[in-house]
Amino acid sequence: MSTTLAPAEVEVEHPGEADSIEYDRPWIVIVWNDPINLMSYVTLVFQKLFGYSREKATQLMLQVHNEGKAVVSGGTREKAEHDVARLHAHGLWATMRQD
């Protein structure tokens, strides 16, 4: 007597729309206030690394100083990782997260 076994049914999950939106969300880079770096130095770093005008860099620096943090850039995960590494290389405390 020969018995043919049918393959077991397997439920396959397909990524939903919410999952694909999760991956499309941009990453942001946050610079945090620290007691070490001078405000003028932080302004210069923002100008050098991101090409901000003196006015924009000063505005971001004051936000870091007064509010404790500021978002200084955003984009893909790879860009955010690169920006965080460059900020660290200049002695600033920076992190990244998905927006």
Measured between the Cα atoms of the first and last residue, the distance is 62 Å
Strand fraction: 15-25%
Order of helices and strands: HEHHEHE
The count of strands amounts to 3
| Sheet with the most strands, sense and barrel status | 3 strands, antiparallel
Strands in their spatial order, largest beta sheet: 2-1-3
Give the CA-based shape.
Answer: elongated
Q: Tally the helices: what do you get?
A: 4
Unreliable stretches (pLDDT < 50, length at least 5) are none
Explain the overall architecture.
The chain is of the alpha+beta class and 99 residues long. Helix content is 47%, strand content 19%. It has 4 helices and 3 strands. Strands 2-1-3 form a 3-stranded antiparallel beta sheet. Helix 2 crosses helix 3. The longest helix has 14 residues, at 54-67. The protein is elongated, with a radius of gyration of 23 Å. The N and C termini lie far apart (62 Å). The model has no long low-confidence stretch (mean pLDDT 87).
Question: What is the strand and helix layout of this fold?
Answer:
Layout: H1 17-24, E1 27-32, H2 39-50, H3 54-67, E2 69-75, H4 77-89, E3 93-98
Antiparallel strand pairs: 1-2, 1-3
Helix pairs in contact: 2-3
Main features:
3 strands; alpha+beta; elongated; 99 residues
Brief synopsis:
By secondary structure, the chain is α+β, with helices and mostly antiparallel strands. Helices cover 47% and strands 19% of the residues.
